[in-house]
Amino acid sequence: QMASQVASPSASLHTTSSSTTLSTPALSPSSPTQLSPDDLELLAKLEEQNRLLETDSKSLRSVNGSRRNSGSSLVSSSSASSNLSHLEEDSWILWGRIVNEWEDVRKKKEKQVKELVRKGIPHHFRAIVWQLLCSAQSMPIKDQYSELLKMTSPCEKLIRRDIARTYPEHDFFKEKDSLGQEVLFNVMKAYSLVDREVGYCQGSAFIVGLLLMQMPEEEAFCVFVKLMQDYRLRELFKPSMAELGLCMYQFECMIQEHLPELYVHFQSQSFHTSMYASSWFLTIFLTTFPLPIATRIFDIFMSEGLEIVFRVGLALLQMNQAELLQLDMEGMLQHFQKVIPHQFDSGPDKLIQASYQVKYNAKKMKKLRTENRLLKQRIETLEKVSISRYSEDFVLQLEKELVQARLSEAESHCALKEMQDKVLEMEKRNSSLPDEENVARLQEELIAVKLREAEALMGLKELRQQVKDLEEHWQRHLARTTGRWKDPPRKNTVNELQDELMTVRLREAETQAELKETKQRMMEMETQGQINNNHLRRAEQEVTSLQGKVQYLSAQNKGLLAQLNEAKRRQAEIECKSKEEVMAVRLREADRIAAVVELQQHIAELEIQKEEGKIQGQLNNSDSNQYIRELKDQIAELHHEVSDKILVSDHLHLLSYFKCSRSCFSSSYYSFRT
């Protein structure tokens, strides 16, 4: 586990000729008596971390190297050198001293710390610095974590459902039932038990996942609790999401002030701020940018709060203003989803520098908060008062409105019936189409439709809420005015007309809500039908391409069969030739054997002559020795000739066998290759 402080201020980096290591703080013999128990515990934890770092020398040569505790790599090093540069060494030494002397540095050099955080926290210091920045290093709730895991949360099913969607491509979380998914579930479950009002909200898992990439789950839980309490995140994630609405209002006012032309373009295209900026505030850009860039922004968020989200958001709009002015609503959505996330793959420094050139007025933001609150109060007051402001002067107007309301109600009923008929017809039509199983292939086609669907659902929800509020206000109005107009007949008529008018308006609002809902269902059915048609069209294209491939392969197969038959014919010819050659070799061998037999007979005759010569040599000793030598020479020549002929015969026989074997092997290899 990472510690929040280090006991001695002498922690530094010692660079040798072979490696670079983080030294353990040197303590004087008297220092243990000067340290608190917490400091001693933190020192032991840092020494344990140093031992882990020393086991992998490469981890100290890269500021953004792999994290040994979780087994995941968040930010890859941008330097290919094997040793730390002087700048990196100075940064590590400086951060080591800051961590060691955190309390004094935070009080006396707060601006310098902010500047260092903006430049980026070294990867191996990030866990401890985050805890120090939010003061989460010694929280009592940490001791309750193990007990919370034993309890049951009502949000467990929702958390399990969204676990696989959190960093689906990251090695630490992508495997089902992996360590990463399990610890993420534990932290989200524990917080849902601590904060029953918020419970679990989509988007918070990305923040917890980033914390788990840096530190163990108990410390990540404490940091997340601090973020929810002190960084406005809890207000953002409340069911009412009132704080998110305030952030959207403040951000929209900033756009109107700094980018008026773009603001007018957004208004003309009905491109609301929440359609692209809500995820920026809920996840601190973790779902917008790649992790290396989002982590740098999160460093600054830990130091300065939500201000960095406003700055980065407005900087993004300034840098993309020219492109956005040329696009419609769907084009702008595509630009925010596909173009902007990859604009800073080379590094986040350009974006961070641009964000701090944005003018951010904290006083004006507080003023906008007050204006937003007053505006909401005024709207609520107007809604409460508007129903009670009828008088006798508007009786004729009420009668006209009543007639018009009845006509519009009849028209709405007709339109609703037509829509219902169309929906039934489209449901029948879609029931005959094949089901879509591979939804992932059609996600790009559904983006625009889903956004329109979400907008329509929001409008429908607001309309229903207005109907509900209108009914409540009307009931209160009736309760207040029950005994007001009993005697005068004129007032009774007005009261009846008002009652009837409000009833018709309520029915009309309900009918409009039903009509809007029916239109929404019709839009969904049309979308599903379009998806199915696209799927069928793609299937037909695939079938056509497969048929072409089958025809091509059939023609290729015919050609290969013809080649195979030709190869078999050639093999048969080669075998015939080989047999003929073998027969010829055997005939020549038989001739040579007959010649050898003749030579052997000749040798035998010479042997006989030799014996006879010996007998004659006994009679004539002077000529016998010479005669014997001549006979021996002749016998040796004959033996030599016989051995040569036998050797030649064997060579010819082997050569013939080799030719036959080679031809058979060639034909077999050709057949196998074909």
Automatic annotation (TrEMBL):
Cited Gene3D superfamilies: putative rabgap domain of human tbc1 domain family member 14 like domains, Ypt/Rab-GAP domain of gyp1p, domain 1, Ypt/Rab-GAP domain of gyp1p, domain 3
Coiled-coil positions: 453-616
The keyword Phosphoprotein appears for this protein: yes
Residue ranges with Low complexity bias: 7-37, 60-80
Stretches assigned to the Rab-GAP TBC domain: 120-305
SMART domains according to UniProt: TBC (SM00164)
Pfam families, per database record: RabGAP-TBC
Region (Disordered): 1-39, 55-80
Keywords noted in UniProt: Coiled coil, Phosphoprotein
Transmembrane segments: none
Gene Ontology terms, MF aspect: GTPase activator activity; small GTPase binding
Protein name: Ecotropic viral integration site 5
Organism: Anser brachyrhynchus
Organism ancestry: Eukaryota, Metazoa, Chordata, Craniata, Vertebrata
